[in-house]
Write a structure and sequence with these properties.
By secondary structure, this protein is an alpha/beta fold. 20% of the residues lie in helices and 33% in strands. The longest helix is centred in the middle third of the chain and has 13 residues. It is globular, with a radius of gyration of 12 Å.
Amino acid sequence: MQIRSFRAHHAILTIGTLDSRTRVMDFNIDEAQVAQAMLNQAESLTIFVDSLKFERIASFKVCGLDRITNLMCEQPPPDRIIKP
């Protein structure tokens, strides 16, 4: 994957779901793998998510909450998501 050739200070991602058990997930394995490759090359991460994606379940893990630097959403996530 060519993404491994790049070094980024900051990655910005959209995601499939954000839930209290598995954290940041995606529905598409290719998108999850690209996101993981981007994260491996980045120092910080901003996630853009809408509240409809809270507490939904997807199949492919992207990362844990500890990897997120900034979370952008139209409303705060439920406490059970942000407090392990």
